[in-house]
Structures are given as C-alpha cells and as structure tokens.
Amino acid sequence: MSKYHVVTFGETMLRLSPKNNRTLEQADDFEVLCAGSESNVAVALSRLGLRSCWFSRLVNNPIGRRIANMIRAHGVDVSQVRWTDEGRNGVAFMELGVPPRSTEVVYDRAGSAASRLDCESVDWDVLKEAKHLHVTGITVALGPSCAECVAIAIAKAREEGLTISFDVNYRQKLWPPRRAAEVLEPLMKQTDVLFMTSDDADRLFDISGNAEKAIEAASQRFGAKWTVLTLGGDGAIAGAEGNTQKVPGNSVHEIDRIGAGDAFVGGFLYGYFKDDLDMALRYGLAMSALKMTTPGDLSFATLSQVRALAAGDGQGVKR
Ligand code: KDG
Fold it and tell me: Cys-Cys with 239: which of 60, 161, 215, 232 at CB 3.0–4.6 Å?
C-alpha cells in the first residue's frame, strides 16, 4: 500500500478576508484563513478519507506555522514542507463580492519564500511513496525555480509510474494569457487528468462554443486520458477515453466561492481513482457546492455529505 494517494505542492498564503461583507477599504477586522490551490485539493482529498501530502517552502515564523497548522488540522501530511528562516510568507487579501460587487483579491506575495522553492531542496523520493501527483499552473507562474519544480515533478512521477493531474488555474494577476498558454501547453500534454474552467479554455487556448464541442477540442489538443471543463453554475463536462458526460451543477446558497474549484478537483479525483466518470463529476460538483456554503478556501465537507448530495439528497435538518 502506498503511503499517500496524492502528493501535491505549491504556494499557500495567509488569507485575510474582511468580516461581514465589508470591503478591504472599510474593514477593521479580518478573518485569518489560508489560500493555496494545491493545499485546498490536499485538504479536500483528506476530508474524503484519502491520504494526501502537500509541501511548499514556508518561513519558520508564526505565519508560516499557522499556515502549516491549518492544513495539518485536516489530516494532510505537511512533513515535506521546506522551512527557511529568511524571507516572507505570501499574503492574499480577499474581499468577497456580493452581487453586483465582484470579489477582489490583492496579492502581497512577490518574492515570497514559496516562490523560491528550488528543486535541489525537495526530496523527490516522496513521489515513490505515492500513487498520484497533482500540480497547477499557479506554481508554474510563480517564478523559474517553481516552474522547474513542476517540470521535474511531472518527469519523475512519469518515471515512477504515478498518474498525474494538472489544473490550469489561470491567474491574470500573475501572468498574461499568451505566455501562460505557451508555457503550460507542454506540461498539460503530459498529464492523465486535465482540469480547466471553460473561461480559461477560451481565454488561453481559444477553445469555445458549446460544452460538447469544447471538451472534444480540449481532449484532442492536449491528449489527457480524462479532460474536464468546469462550467460555473452549469456544472461540468468530462471526456474520458471516448466517453463524454455532462452533469449540471447543484443549487447553492453561496457564502464564499474561493476554493470551490479545488474542492471540485478533490471530489473528481476521488471518482477518478475508482475509475468511475459519473461518480467523479457528481462528487466533484458536490464538493464544490458544499465548499461554497462555508467561509474560507478549505473544504469542511464530509464523505457522507458528498455522497448524499451527489445522490440528490442535499437539504434538510439532520437530527
Ligand atoms: O482557488 C483558490 C486558490 O487558488 C486561491 O485561494 C489562491 O488564487 C490563489 C493563488 O493565486 O495562489
């Protein structure tokens, strides 16, 4: 038995969000949370009972320890985190929008310790203890040493026979779309499961039109075994070895949508590991919907809640 189902790595920032729907400009107090796509996925998987390991590079100060503790609290193994005494941890100020006001994110992350993760410092043998590697385009955008880590991780994972998933996760505040497309495409072509929002597919790769046409185009272009397009409120569509399936989204009373895409990835991978496309889509969408009902990036869903929602039983008072 492998020690981990999934290993992942990437930057996790301290997330400060104004309380009570206040804007960043007017807020006096903030909720202290954490924000990082890969650690969100690691937490989502762990909530579903899978063994996950997440690592990054953190400054050994109260902020770095708080970030690691928030992730560890969900059962994620953080023992591979590279600790440093120098530099700083990234911070994300996230103001949640209430329609028609959009959500605003102000990064304070340039030159963070995580953006300087270097391949020599990582113990890549950790991959020998795992079945699956998950990486995202955010890490590639953080800087040359992080981009190199992603390329090395993919190459080593392939050598060791792990399956690999990649989430494009385009962030316009980190890099322009043309550059992102150019750099990400070769990495995307080496993965087994590829995740993208339909907006990113359009903006980066000119893949648009109806969902069925878009999934066919994305499957052909990148050649992943399973390709997934998330469609916002319309659910998600996936193409898996010639088989295409589309599942509508759940109705949600949204409290905080940040991290919903990562919760989707966690739920989807759960079904992927069972080789069940329908389950992957339904669990992904259930995880994503449940995440939106709680504040913060991290999922607090349980497997039984996800099972119930995926089977169409989401509401009611549980006594
Ligand atoms: O998906 C949510 C995370 O990705 C977010 O909280 C962190 O956007 C983020 C980033 O750029 O690292």
Answer: 215
CA distance 235 to 160: 34
What is the pTM (predicted TM-score) of this model? 0.97
Measured in Å, how far apart are the chain's first and last C-alpha atoms? 37
Cα(124) to centroid of ligand 1, in Å? 24
Report the C-alpha gap between 69 and 277 in whole angstroms.
Answer: 33
275 to each of 58, 186, 206, 272, how far by Cα in Å? 35, 25, 30, 5
pLDDT in tens, 109-158: 999 999 999 999 999 999 999 999 999 999 999 999 999 999 999 999 99
Ordered by where they begin, the domains of the chain are 4-310 (3.40.1190.20)
Distances from the Cα of 71 to the Cαs of 40, 94, 282, in angstroms? 8, 19, 25
Residues lining ligand 1, judged by CB closer than 6 Å? 11, 35-37, 40, 138, 171, 258-259, 261-262, 297
